[in-house]
Amino acid sequence: MWNNTRCPTEKPTTKDITQMAKRIIAAALCAAAITSSTMANHLDPNNPSGTIVDRFADIEVLRYTVPGFNELSLDRKLFIYYLTEAALAGRDILWDQNGKYNLALRQIAEGVYRNYSGDRNDKDFKAFETYLKQIEFGNGAYHHYSTDKFTPGFTQKWFEGQLADLMKKQPALASAISPEETRMVMRLMFDPSFMPKRVNQAEGADLILTSANNMYEGVTQKEVEDYFNAKKDPADKTPVSYGLNTKVVKENGKVKELPYKIGGLYSPAIERIVENLNKALPYAETELQRNSILELIKFYTTGDLRTFDNYSILWTEDTTPIVDFINGFIESYGDPLGMTGSWESIVNFKNTKASERTETISNAAQWFEDRSPVDPRFRKPEVKGVSAKVINAAILAGDAYPSTPIGINLPNANWIRAAHGSKSVTIENITQAYDDASHGNGFNEEFVIDKPTCELLDKYLFITDNLHTDLHECLGHGSGRLLPGVDPDALKAHGSTLEETRADLFALYYLADPHMLELGLLDNPDAYKAEYYKYMLNGLMTQLMRIEPGKDVEEAHMRNRKLIAEWALEHGKKDNVVEMVKKNGKTYVKINDYRRLRELFGELLAEIQRIKSEGDYEAGARLVEQYAVKVDPQLHREVLDRYAKLSIAPYKGFVNPVYTPVLDDKGRITDISVTYEEDYLPQMFRYSDNYSPLTRK
Ligand code: ZN
Fold first, then answer.
1. Beta carbons of 334 and 355 less than 8 angstroms apart
2. Ligand 1 centroid to residue 155 C-alpha, Å
3. Fewer CB within 10 Å: N-end or C-end of the chain?
């Protein structure tokens, strides 16, 4: 499961989302960082993290760096290197899964672009360049988030002229792609009614027939459902993930599955993945890791889903290695029925220093619990902190590229999670890149009340935001207990909002505690104010940018933030703790008394914990309805207008670093170098040239 939540005033909440077992789509609606298209990138040239590489349509492409890679041992670098090769080898699989004509489309479009010798400022060419960048970002003809088909801004006539020229100059390409295939690609590009949406979730439609992805062909939704229902045994306590690695088709009137495996669908790409997994194998850090890789190879060789479960269990239980990776058919967001996994890979290694932070917090769990500002009857006598690992990604591939999650929790199979646990990670070099890109982008200047507060945020928001997440995840959710006999589902539809409220309040309360300094997690007693200001600003104002005019706040995390901020604003009124002030016709949040604000967070935490511990549904519902749902239309309009002026790219993604073996004069690898210079389209073209085993040459 992915956590994608990221926007300028918001931070990731990995487990909240992963526990809901669904993708949080908020990230796509909000910007991770805000940068005007005309604004020059201001970043330190020696630190390319967060640099803007490209900007087109609704997309911004950033660079991320891989801190700590150069300090790894040669064995670990080699391990990572071969795993990145295995990651890149699967790119074509995802393109084909995303649509039957995507690979031919890419080949034709890249060919036209690279063959073009006319005026690069030509209107049609410029529009075509944008289109090409869009399909590279979508891994096919469809937007990665909305899954709607891209619309060309150039004429079909112009493109046909370019294509004729290309085919004349490259007869090999002309013979590799059949006239029929070319005709279908032209329809895909220029006929809006032809295969219009990759994943259709609209109620009432046949989701298989109306989705353009290539995971099913010639079958109806009912046929697919009947087929799998016949296979499933409701009494099976350890079911395999049916359909995870297959395309469902009809042959001679019979529904059947074509497995993705060596000798099956996508064989040339899978062979190359396996070849590189084999090269990586000698560098595995533990016996368990070695066995899990062997099991993965066996899965790719046989396509057997029981083997995949065995692999998942080994992978889950192998928690000690520094280097780790996923490579396979993992998330099923690309299938309207949520069964077939889209191919992806992320290679990563533990960020030991950042992981110390989560370990420190986890180890101090009992200290925090014993002093929590709630009724002692509701405290846990024995609390165990959850430790989530912090990692740096070395490569993003398949469905995790160029758009990527910032947190991942796997495996997805519920019975494996229950019996063997799961691994939860935060990808800190990606969140770092988002943060780097957001500095000086105009957001704080527009919404934050004054310069000293802006400076406080610049200096302390990244660390306090990370700490807030750590406290929320490692302690907040695990703190407190229900009174005997209280139904855990007593808060019903408000349960998740109030649970997030509780975890956030626990984190906010302790972020300001002197113990954070004693534990060495913060170095300034005022640092917490950065998170407090951002939290109140977000809850009272800026998160409204994600709500359409006239709509209520619905999503649980957004409700929770609004509940906390509005409650604190109202209950601090008589002491003037927080106020909304007007300057030059614009509304700002002003915090007058941070210490008192902390006390208010503590008071609300005590009440929310009581509601939870006693299962007081009415009190919980009253709080949510009073503070968390309704939007002030005037303030909403103002936020939307001010936000629109910042000219934000709503979606972001990344180019990968380039890894190159360094050889000695005998041809032995002595090092792996990492560089951050490759641009967006050149990277895409290099991948198409060197990592496209499914493309006909
Ligand atoms: Zn949470």
1. no
2. 48
3. C
